[in-house]
Automatic annotation (TrEMBL):
Protein name: Putative transcription regulator, TetR family
Entry superkingdom: Bacteria
Segments of the chain annotated as binding DNA: 44-63
A Pfam family hit: TetR_N
Keyword set, alphabetical order: DNA-binding, Transcription, Transcription regulation
PROSITE patterns from the UniProt entry: HTH_TETR_2 (PS50977)
Organism: Neorhizobium galegae bv. orientalis str. HAMBI 540
Gene3D superfamilies associated with the record: Tetracycline Repressor, domain 2
Length: 214
């Protein structure tokens, strides 16, 4: 089906032609970027329209306003883990539950470092209790749980280990380190600025997982 291009106006520049799909995508990416940079304080129809280079009426037409944009971002977060973290094991043969958690912990840390918006959402979860934050948090948490269940398959933790609590602590620690790195570049005197710093964190994380799961 042929899409009819539409003209969108970008502030301070020549008007340009975009398809509907292109405009929707530009609006979505602009909204996501604004949330990552400024949080909900800078998240408004006019700001999104300026960033996307379109008329603000198109945001209402395609998304129904800010609530619709939040829903779209939440839906994207629902596939965040699946889209950004590989389901293969990088050639590593998983024999034990410890093998699995070692690999997944490193994957999760690297994916979180690469996504400023998800880092912001993790920080908001412990500092803001609003319907918008809850909506985004629930989508992210549900996706993470599904991903862990799928990757685990038939592997089981050693007897006597409370895997649910242990894994929650591991992932919470990873999240806190990544957020601290974004805010101050360190945590408790541990530098978190260079790839060498993060290699040290990765090695310590692997040793910690092995100490717990064998």
């Amino acid at each position: 089906m042929l899409q009819i291009p539409e003209v969108t106006a970008q502030e301070g520049s020549v008007a340009k032609v975009r398809s509907r799909a292109g405009t929707e995508r530009a609006i979505f990416l602009a909204a996501r970027a604004l949330l990552a940079e400024q949080g909900f304080q800078g998240f408004g129809i006019n700001a999104v329209a300026r960033r996307a280079g379109c008329d603000k009426q198109l945001i209402y037409r395609y998304y129904g306003g800010l609530d619709g944009l939040i829903e779209a971002i939440g839906a994207d977060l629902g596939t965040w883990v699946k889209d950004r973290i590989p389901e293969d094991t990088g050639g590593m043969f998983l024999l034990t539950y410890g093998d699995l958690m070692e690999k997944l912990s490193i994957y999760f840390m690297e994916a979180l470092r690469d996504d400023p918006l998800v880092c912001k959402i993790v920080a908001w979860e412990v500092s803001q209790d609003t319907p918008q934050v809850r909506r985004l948090s629930e989508a992210r948490t549900k996706a993470l749980g599904k991903w862990l269940d799928k990757m685990r398959g038939s592997l089981t933790p050693p007897k006597g280990v409370d895997a649910a609590t242990t894994n929650a602590l591991l992932f919470a620690a990873i999240q806190h380190l990544v957020i601290s790195a974004a805010v101050s570049g360190q945590f408790a005197g541990l530098a978190l600025k260079t790839e060498k710093d993060w290699d040290k964190v990765g090695n310590a994380l692997r040793r910690l997982v092995r100490a717990i799961y064998g």
